[in-house]
Automatic annotation (TrEMBL):
Transaldolase is important for the balance of metabolites in the pentose-phosphate pathway. The keyword Cytoplasm applies. One of its GO terms (molecular function) is transaldolase activity. This is Probable transaldolase. The lineage of its organism: Bacteria, Pseudomonadati, Pseudomonadota, Alphaproteobacteria, Rhodobacterales. It comes from Litoreibacter arenae DSM 19593. The gene is tal.
Length: 217
């Protein structure tokens, strides 16, 4: 499973990219607003750091306007994935923009039917939102599994990019049900390294090392 980092914070992207675990980046208007930076400027900086796809989201609602914005975003760098919402207009924009050779990430997906339409119009990525479904007491992971089954039934090449990830467990669950990509905030990715028994075991080893006066360098 590929890991994308869901942020527009440059320091986090640099740190995780240096570890070699970042296969791409996703942003959205809320994350850009949180960064306090200009969208074109910060997106260019991200594209210069990361080799993989960097999703940048349109803010228009009409297909023609989304297409114009998408074309402008695509000029930032070769690894831009234009992000469009899963609306009827978004699907029209996806069809045109993928037809022009761009990567397109269709976002705000909350149902298998929406994912089916995105695959039909040739989306590069479909972004089903796990956390926002879980917030409504629905099962976000079940949606990922349903889309996996449907795409595999027909050999659709659209990649399932699991989004709205809120916990480290979401990451391993996504890998179990076969998401192609999972995008998570930096804190969630770091939290994947944590386990209470690791902390407890390390504490005991450190105490014993100190007692025995073990020194290596
Ligand atoms: C990424 O592509 C999505 O925009 C993001 O994962 C949404 O996450 P949220 O539901 O935590 O805002």
């Amino acid at each position: 499973m590929k890991f994308f980092v869901d942020t527009a914070e440059i320091d986090d992207i640099k740190e995780l990219n240096a570890l070699g675990i970042v296969d791409g980046v996703t942003t959205n208007p809320s994350l850009i607003a949180k960064s306090g930076r200009d969208i074109l400027e910060v997106t260019k900086e991200i594209c210069d750091i990361v080799d993989g796809p960097v999703s940048a989201e349109v803010v228009a609602l009409k297909a023609d306007d989304m297409i114009a914005e998408g074309r402008k975003l695509a000029k930032i760098a070769e690894n831009i994935a234009i992000k469009v919402p899963l609306t009827w207009d978004g699907l029209k924009a996806c069809k045109v923009l993928t037809g022009e050779g761009n990567m397109v990430n269709v976002t705000l997906c909350f149902s298998a039917n929406q994912a089916l339409l995105a695959a039909k119009v040739g989306a590069t990525f479909i972004s089903p939102f796990i956390g926002r479904l879980d917030d409504l007491n629905l099962d976000g992971m079940e949606l990922i599994a349903d889309i996996r089954e449907i795409y595999d039934n027909y050999g659709y090449e659209t990649e399932i990019l699991a989004a709205s990830i809120r916990s480290a467990n979401h990451m391993s669950d996504c890998a179990k049900v076969g998401a192609d990509v999972a995008t998570a905030p930096p804190a969630v990715i770091r939290n994947m390294a944590n386990h209470v028994l690791t902390d407890k075991g390390l504490d005991a080893f450190m105490k014993d090392a100190e007692k025995a006066g073990i020194k290596i360098v």
